[in-house]
Amino acid sequence: MPEITISSNDIATILEKNSESFSISLGLEEIGHVIDTGDGIASVDGLPCVMAEEMVQFPNDVYGMVMNLERDHVGVIVLGDYSKIEQGDMVKRTGKVLQVPVGDAFLGRVVTPLGHPIDGKGPIATEETMLVETDSPGIMERESVSTPLQTGLKGVDAMTAIGRGQRELIVGDRQTGKTTMAVDAIINQAGGDVKCVYVAIGQKMSTIANVVAALEEADAMRNTVVVVASASDSAPLQYIAPFAGCSMAEFFRNRGEDALIVYDDLYKHAVAYREISLLLRRPPGREAFPGDIFYLHSRLLERAAKVNPDYGNGSLTALPIVETKQGDYSAYIPTNLVSITDGQIYLEPELFHQGFRPAINVGLSVSRVGGKAQVPAMKKVAIKLRMELAQYREVASFAQLTTDLDKATLDQLHRGERLAEILKQPQHATLTMDKQVCIMWAAVNGHLDDIALSDIARFQNEWFGLLDGPFADIGKTIMGTGDLSDDTAARLVESFDAFKAIFLPSSEVKIVDGRRVVPPVDDHETRLPTAAVGAEA
């Protein structure tokens, strides 16, 4: 075996070369320890310089957010599986405030408040993030709300118009159609330029699955993000869910687009925040809610705004939902939200059970933006519609006390019944603005007065078939100009006369083998287009 000789010069050369690349870096970390934990809350000591709302890291890759800064410890809400945290565990500062990933890649996905996908479609590729808690736009950044956000619901677009950048509260008891109304507003944006975010707070997973299925069936998931903090998730995740969803929506607004966000619902959000506050030993106030419960929702909803061109020219419209108990419209959380928002849509249980869907109580519903968020054509018919409905309700309440009514009163009752009937709308059956204008124009001008109440829905749907066929120019003109001119009104009368000549009342329609059979008409009569014949109420 040959001998190996190593010279001292070679050793010195190697050591000098290695010493040039060798460096010593000293790091300084603040490390604390868990004093106590449970119910999604952890008390930590040893973090004297930690910031409010800073992220801290627990073992097993679990993170938390600092909520309370006490003299000898800090209170942390755990954003993950708190059962993995034990007393004495090490806690590290991250130096970062809570952020959430954002971007176009989230469209069409169902995610947690932290941005993790739960729809089984794989990871979401995005590198952009935004702070969960951000300041709302200032006065100089804002612009007056003037552009309508069409929901596709006649009762909303006509009576309580919503503008892009507005905050319109949806309030009502459980099972009165609040979620359905918000989902219909999202569905109506399918294929449009409005990006949507639906935030489910404390909802059952079966309910959320039904919402996602409805959006997918209507092809509305392509421009929608669903953020889920279900009833089985912890209170801390339910607390940050609307703020995280708002940041995802602000991403689109900040680059000049229009966005819509639905919070479903903020009463459950308030309950989650109350649970966190009581566990953190914050002093309770009315109904055991903490004293800053108003600030909680105001700083969230103030982030919805229409910004001027100097700041991107985008908008964020908010549709918060709040559930009432036994119709208690004046409860603590609902009245807080009414005072924060720019109007409210009140869904009445009695109307819902009577078959009026959506069950909008026009007297208690209001939009503080009003006609500013309506096109001229909608404004023309909406003003007359609201006046006629108000007179109808007044006369209807009087008519219950007597049967001796004059002809003028009977005519008002007759017209009002038809106005109320046309405002009924099946779920997920949104209408374009031109069709809404046409049917409401027909109702307020008496063209439906000679139609039986039971035939109104069928008449409307079959007439729409005619408007999509030989009279398609009416809708195009209304959509193009946004107005209802005298020439367009005359064209509407023409379409109405043509359709009434061939419309058959229910008493003359025969049902054979479960199918509606229309008797043949004379050759000289105008026949209904095939698409309209097949339409059903």
List keywords for this structure.
alpha/beta; 8-stranded mixed beta sheet; 16 helices; 18 strands
Please give a structural write-up.
With 537 residues, the chain is of the alpha/beta class. It is built from 16 helices and 18 strands. The strands form four sheets. An eight-stranded mixed β-sheet has the order 8-12-11-13-14-10-15-16, sandwiched between helices. It has a six-stranded antiparallel beta barrel with strand order 1-2-5-4-3-6. Helix 5 (235-254) packs across helix 6 (266-279), helix 7 packs parallel to helix 8 (332-340) and helix 11 (407-422) packs antiparallel against helix 12. The model is unreliable at 520-537 (pLDDT under 50).
- How many distinct helices? 16
Strand content: 15-25%
- Counting DSSP E segments of at least 2 residues, the number of strands comes to 18
C-alpha geometry: elongated
- Which structural class fits the helix and strand makeup? alpha/beta
Ranges where pLDDT stays below 50 over 5 or more residues in a row are 520-537
Biggest sheet layout: 8 strands, mixed
Residues in helix, %: 25-40%
Q: Would you spell out the secondary-structure blueprint of this structure?
A:
Elements: H1 8-21, E1 31-38, E2 41-45, E3 54-58, E4 62-69, E5 74-78, E6 90-97, E7 99-101, E8 110-111, E9 129-131, H2 154-159, E10 169-172, H3 178-187, E11 194-201, H4 205-217, E12 224-229, H5 235-254, E13 258-264, H6 266-279, H7 293-301, E14 315-323, H8 332-340, E15 343-347, H9 349-353, E16 366-367, H10 376-399, H11 407-422, H12 433-444, H13 456-467, H14 472-481, H15 486-500, E17 510-512, E18 515-517, H16 530-533
